[in-house]
Structure formats: C-alpha cells, structure tokens
Specification:
By secondary structure, this protein is of the alpha+beta class. The chain contains 25 helices and 26 strands. The strands form six sheets. The chain has a seven-stranded mixed sheet, sandwiched between helices. A six-stranded antiparallel sheet has the order 4-3-5-11-6-9, with no helix packed on it. The protein has a six-stranded antiparallel sheet with strand order 14-21-20-19-18-17.
C-alpha cells in the first residue's frame, strides 16, 4: 500500500497539471470525433485522471474505511466504462481532478518558521573559570555556571546578571523595539541580544528549559493543536455514496435498464460540489492579493469568516515601532528657563548622535526631520563623549557639559531632581512615553519625551471591526501605561499587557476553549506561537519578522492595516458564495437524478448537464475576483 501512496504523491502539483492539460486536449479531440483506431481518445483522460482517483479511493477504503467523494466517482467511472460510455467517464475524471488540483494549490503549506526559530538558538557560550574564559557549546552550560556576555552577543541561556550594566534587545521575547536597561540582579533570557556593556551572569535555566526552547515548543504545539477544516464534499461523502448507490440499484431493479442506473451515478458525481469551495477560495485569494495580502493557508479565509475576536500586538502592528520625539520641555528656575527648548533639543541631539542606542538614534533622526534644511538644523561638534550602558550619554557641546539619560545617570553625577521637576514628566510617563532627562553643567535643565507613533488608520479599523460584530483586543508585551494609552486612543476596551509568548498563547486558548475564535495580528518573533495557535494568524509582512510571517496563515505584505476590514468582509462574502454554490450544485444534481430515473438523460447528456453546473459554479466564484464592499459615505 505504501508503494501506491508513493506513486500517487510522485510529481506533485506539476504532474497533475500536465495530466489535466493532456486530458483536456484528448477530450476536445474525442468530442470532435477523432480516435486512434478503435480506441476513443477519452481513454487518455480516464487513464491520466481517472486511475489516480480510483487508487486513492481504494487506499482510503482499505487502510481506514474512509468513504470520500472519490468512492462514488470511482464507481461511476467503472460503470461508465463497462457500458461503453467512455466520453462520460473521461469528462467526470477530468472535472474531479481539476477540483482536486485547486484544493492542493490552495492548501499548500510552508513550514520553515520552526526551523528559523531553531537557528536563533545560541550555539556557544563564554564560561568563566576563575579569571579564565572558555568557549563551550551552549548545550554544555549547566545551572549555576558563571557566563560572560560581550556586546553584540546573544544571551546563551536564562540567568541573572551578577556584574555589569547593559541594555538588552528583548524583541524576540516581548516584541518591543526599545532595549531594556539591565543591572546586577536583573534576569536575562536566552535568545535576547546584548547591545552595549559586557556583563557576567549566573545560569538559571538551561537546555530545554530556556526561554527560546520553550518558545519553539509553543510554536510546535500550537501548530499541532490547530484543527483543519475538511472539504464539504468529503464531509457529506458517505451520505452521497449511500443515496447515489441506492437510487441507482433501485432504478436498475424497477426499470431493468442498466444505462439509467449508470446515468444516475454519473449525474450524482459531486463535481460541482467538489468545485464549490476551492474555486471560491482561489478567487477570494486573488482578490485578497490585490489588496496586499498573501494567503498562505488555503482555508484561512474560510476560518476568518468565523472569528469573534481580533487580537492585536501593539508595537509594529497598531504602531510603527519607531519612537519619535513628541515633546521637548525646558525647566524653569526663578521664573526663567535655564535653556531654550530649541537649544536643549539641539544639544541633546548632538550628544545622542554619537550613541548606538536606538533611543539616541531616534532623537537624532527626529531632530533632523523637525529642523529640515534650516540653519538651526546643523549640529555642533562633541568632545569628551562617554556612553554609560544602561544609563545614557554625556559630552561637551560648545563649552557646556551635557548629561542625557535616565534618573540614575543624573543621580550618579550628583544632579538632583526635585518633586516639581518629576511632576512635569509624569504625564508623559503615564501615557507610556520614554523620558530622557537632560542636565546642563550639573543642573537639571529639561527632558525629551519619546513615544511610539500610532498608525493613523488604527482607530477607524477598530471602529469598522466593531460595526461588523468582531471585538478588538490588545495583547502586548509593553507595560500597562503604554498599552492603556494606545487602547484608549483607538477605542479598544479589552487589554492584556506585559504578555510573554506563553501569555499570549494562554489568552487565545482561554477564548477559543469557549468556542470564541480568535484572529491574531502580530509582527514579531514573540508573536509566532500566538499566530500559530489562533484560529487565524495574520502577520505584518513588511515590518514583521520572517518567522512571524511563516507562522501565520496570512501575511499583510505592505502593512496597510486598514485593509483588514476588507479582508474580513471578503471572507464573509466568500462563504456566502460557497453556500450558494453548494445549494445550486445539490439542487441541480437531484433534478438530474429525477430526469435520469425517468430515462430523459443518458450518461453522456447527464455528464454534460452536471458539468455545465460545474462551469456555472466556477463563473459564480470568479465574481469574487473583483468584489469590493460598498462603503457608506
């Protein structure tokens, strides 16, 4: 049996296309009256398209007693050949293989996501033995080992920092683009990247217990646990076979005409039924492609029509993931500003321009964009530049010493922040902004507030989702204040913050256990398990990571999230088209059976009638290619 299965799998989709092209040519020539000696050219279609159907039906019956639509088709093919209706047999085989090909094309999958996650796993580690370092395989690290991580290296295992100050890029775990400052006593996770300072750490979780390995297992388990939608023809196949065989046998017994019985089998072949779903899906996929979506799972749109919640990651999905300066505030002393906002901004940008920190680069970029080509946009030179990992930067600008960083940096240099000063920055921190405090010549002078910028179409998208009965939800690794601020801005009421990959997975599990299907939209590696687990996963294809895209069912190539409302409406329209196709095909089949029982239809005409129904199904599905929901003005 396994050799038969290998034979059927050989060549894949390319082989099926070649067989269909040759079969189609043979059927056209047969209809025109051409033949090779006594053999009808329709036999080419019977052999190339019919034999694989018969073999698959046989394998399903023998190995698992699985009655699919192929069983009825095989019976009809064999009966048609026995009574000499070769053209009818070839027609049915051709149409059924065309439907199977469409299904194969739409459900083709890519599984490279887990492999790429594995490649993120650190390979080596620096183990400390007294004053000596040794490079070892990361798998050899044991709990309690002392390790050193230099700038630019990936943290090999989970652990706690014992010495050193640094900034860690935790995007792989939290999805947040801004690095997190770390000092002794703070935890670090495997797979995250050390950006600046060197630090020593004590290993706490190693091997299969490490964070990156747990995430790989989450993706694998989420993929295995997702249910697959079964084709409608195969779901109803048992009843179709029973009804068709019963009708054929009874007609043959009562009329005594075997040709009527065979005609019933031919017209009852579920060609239109098989084509009803895949043709609509392919047309809808074509429509979605025009709107910037890459549909990677054939049944993703079918599932999307059934979602109750749409869960969004924040950074890179609802926001651009790039911090921008939203406010520059100069502190007043004795009723006068110590320094003007413009000069504070200019000098801070000068010092931050030497920094490799993402916040420093953001300040420099925003200053240049804000000032444009004006004369004030030119930056002065810097001397005595010092970068303090996990704290900030300092340097001399036009004869003045500038400190720019967090409160710890200012405290270390003896700069005190009064209650009045901190009150000025508190409203920005309440909104989730990152604040850079600035001191001039040892005196606190003001601050810069930076925030991730919201996509302008986010609020209207949320509103349209709510109008369509889908509830938006925020699942983010960001803190409570930042998450709450974004949620209030765009009208999302359900918010879950500080979510690790396993947290997002558990929230989705919780809703889906209640039969409330969730569509997850994300962009980061940390979103991959949730994208796999969700009923439908949609990844931001432009800003998103390759792993997120490959874990998702659908990728939004150009990151234009306002198109999500069109995709949701398209999925509902596609399901309506499928239901219309199914109703039409079943009605046509039953009418044809009545005509076959009364002797009005013979096998050839019966095949033409019900294949004409297949053509109408295809035409109806094709209307989805250019469908667009009318919007109210």
């Amino acid at each position: 049996m396994k050799y038969l299965e290998k034979f059927l799998a050989w060549g894949g989709i390319r082989k099926d296309i070649i067989c269909l092209v040759l079969s189609g040519i043979a059927l056209v020539l047969s209809l025109a009256g051409f033949s090779i000696g006594p053999a009808d050219l329709a036999w080419a279609a019977i052999i190339l398209c019919g034999i694989p159907i018969i073999l698959e039906a046989f394998i399903g019956l023998v190995t698992a007693f699985d009655i699919k639509a192929d069983v009825l088709v095989s019976i009809a093919l064999i009966a048609s050949v026995i009574i000499g209706e070769d053209f009818a047999a070839g027609e049915v085989a051709f149409i059924m293989q065309l439907g199977a090909l469409l299904e194969d094309v739409t459900v083709a999958r890519a599984r490279a996501g887990i492999e790429k996650l594995v490649h993120l796993t650190p390979r080596t580690a620096r183990r400390l033995l007294g004053e000596r370092e040794e490079m070892i395989d990361a798998q050899e690290v044991r709990v309690g080992d002392m390790l050193r991580v230099n700038p630019g290296e990936t943290v090999p295992v989970d652990g706690v920092i014992c010495a050193g100050i640094t900034s860690i890029n935790e995007a792989v775990m939290t999805g947040e683009s801004l690095p997190v400052d770390k000092s002794p006593g703070d935890e670090v996770q495997s797979g995250t990247v050390n950006l600046f300072g060197s630090f020593d750490m004590k290993a706490s979780r190693v091997g299969e217990d490490s964070s990156i390995q747990r995430m790989i297992r989450l993706v694998q388990s989420a993929d295995a646990g997702k249910a697959r939608i079964v084709g409608i023809a195969d779901r109803w196949a048992t009843w179709i076979v029973v009804i068709a065989l019963s009708a054929a046998v009874l007609t043959g017994i009562f009329t005594g005409e075997i040709i009527r019985a065979v005609t019933i089998l031919v017209v009852f072949c579920p060609c239109a039924l098989v084509l009803a779903t895949p043709t609509a899906i392919m047309a809808a996929i074509g429509n979605a492609t025009k709107h910037g979506f890459l549909v990677r799972e054939g049944d993703a749109l079918e599932r999307l029509a059934g979602v109750s919640f749409m869960a969004f990651d924040k950074t890179g999905t609802l926001t651009f993931g790039n911090p921008k300066v939203v406010s520059v505030c100069a502190f007043q002393k004795d009723g006068k500003k110590i320094i003007s906002e413009e000069r504070l901004y200019r000098w801070t940008a000068s010092v931050e321009g030497r920094s490799e920190h993402p916040l420093g680069k953001a300040v420099l970029k925003c200053y240049k964009n804000d000032m444009g080509n004006s004369e004030t946009g030119s930056l002065p030179g810097i001397t005595d530049f010092v970068m303090c990992p996990g704290r900030g930067v300092s340097g001399c600008v036009e004869g003045h010493r500038i400190l720019a960083g967090n409160q710890e940096l200012l405290n270390e240099h003896g700069v005190e922040l009064s209650l009045e000063m901190t009150k000025l920055s508190q409203p920005y921190m309440d909104e989730g902004c990152t604040v850079i405090y600035v001191a001039l010549d040892g005196v606190y002078s003001g601050f810069l507030a930076l925030a991730d910028t919201l996509r302008p179409e986010a609020a209207s998208l949320v509103r349209r989702l709510q109008e369509n009965g889908v509830l938006p939800m925020l699942l983010t690794g960001d803190n409570e204040k930042a998450a709450g601020h974004i949620a209030r801005e765009i009208g999302i009421r359900e918010v879950h913050f500080q979510c690790r990959p396993e947290d997002k997975l558990s929230w989705i599990d919780k809703y889906q256990e209640q039969k409330r299907h969730v569509c997850m939209i994300g962009d980061g590696i940390n979103d991959a398990p949730a994208l796999k687990k969700a009923y439908v996963g949609i990844a931001m294809g432009g800003a998103g990571s390759d792993i997120a895209v490959e874990a998702a069912d659908i990728a939004l190539v150009d990151d234009e999230i306002y198109e999500l409302s069109h995709l949701l409406a398209l999925s509902h329209r596609m399901m309506l088209t499928i239901k219309c196709n199914l109703t039409f095909s079943m009605t046509l089949n039953f009418i044809a059976i009545v005509l076959a029982i009364t002797g009005i239809l013979n096998p050839v005409i019966g095949a033409l009638v019900h294949n004409a129904g297949s053509v109408l199904v295809i035409i109806n599905s094709a209307l989805l290619l250019k469908w667009k929901k009318r919007t109210r003005r």
